[in-house]
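Quick log. Single chain, no ligands specified.
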Amino acid sequence: MSNYYGPELERKFCQIGDQVELGANATISGYASLFGEVDQGGDVVRAGAYGGSLARLKASGTGVKLLWQHDPAQPIGVWDEVREDARGLYVKGRLLTETRQGFEAAALIEAGAIDGLSIGYRTVKAERDAKGRRHLAELELWEVSLVTFPMLSEARVGAKADSPLTTSAQDLAGVFRTLRHTLSAG
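-> predicted structure:
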């Protein structure tokens, strides 16, 4: 897959601490990034790192994209709220289950097959410490994706019991059989 963002875009599977919740009407919320945590790449995001980017996005009337596996050809929903607080980067949005990929993403989260979040960003300002860790002071946030393999074991998505999606294994298997048949016929 080509990188439409250009050579400077970075992708980071983020430690989210709390689980992201899948609620009624396929809403999701949680932390896409936590401040002060060292990830497997040796990076630490500083408090306030997203502030400038979020302000510019708001001023331009655009938003952070909700993608499937960082693929720009597969938007799967919308982030209705993206903000910094004392803990990190909080996101709240909706999976668009009217689309095939949005429906599949919701079903996969509900079944526990997809359980990670990752961000796509450009580094604007960073410094290295004596241990070689990068301290990210300013980032240009492009997207927050649902992903199969998060970098950290703590970066997991959870599902609430009150989700409108089916939860039985038989119903879920039937959905995937139907989708597989539809895709092979097309």
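The domain at 10-185 is CATH 3.20.16 (Serine Protease, Human Cytomegalovirus Protease; Chain A).
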